[in-house]
Amino acid sequence: MKKFYSDHHIPTVTMLWLIVVFLIATPFFTPNQIWGEMFIPIIIVALCALLILWILLDTKYAIKNSFLHYTSGPIRGKIDIYKINAIVHQKKWFVHSSLKPALGSKGLVIKYGKFDDIYISPKRKQEFIDALLEINPHIEIE
């Protein structure tokens, strides 16, 4: 199994960390706190912070046998590498993909099946592409 970790777009990751800090600190700075009334909002805020932390700390990709496994917090799945048609280097700000388990801004759009695609951003892009091409040499690189 080959593992690849997600690249990080510094402004986005910094913003997400600031949101986590804000969410965790907010209950401690609310005026006239009555902890009995604040219990449910604190739980909701803590769950939101944990979700963002989970995404920040657990975004990665793995190639195991003939499948590409992707993980980004609760977003998980696998793609049959033999069904991958093309890989497109994405350098624009806006990505035309509905599934984006990535933290980087310059990643890869993987087109597979008939109409499916996914945006990912491995740190070592060329090594990642080479690992996919070892399994399926018919993948077009755009």
UniProtKB/TrEMBL annotation:
<feature type="transmembrane region" description="Helical">
    <location>
        <begin position="12"/>
        <end position="29"/>
    </location>
</feature>
<protein>
    <recommendedName>
        <fullName>Uncharacterized protein YyaB-like PH domain-containing protein</fullName>
    </recommendedName>
</protein>
<dbReference type="GO" id="GO:0030153">
    <property type="term" value="P:bacteriocin immunity"/>
</dbReference>
<dbReference type="InterPro" id="IPR009589">
    <property type="entry name" value="PH_YyaB-like"/>
</dbReference>
<keyword id="KW-0472">Membrane</keyword>
<keyword id="KW-1133">Transmembrane helix</keyword>
<feature type="domain" description="Uncharacterized protein YyaB-like PH">
    <location>
        <begin position="59"/>
        <end position="136"/>
    </location>
</feature>
<feature type="transmembrane region" description="Helical">
    <location>
        <begin position="35"/>
        <end position="57"/>
    </location>
</feature>
<dbReference type="Pfam" id="PF06713">
    <property type="entry name" value="bPH_4"/>
</dbReference>
<keyword id="KW-0812">Transmembrane</keyword>
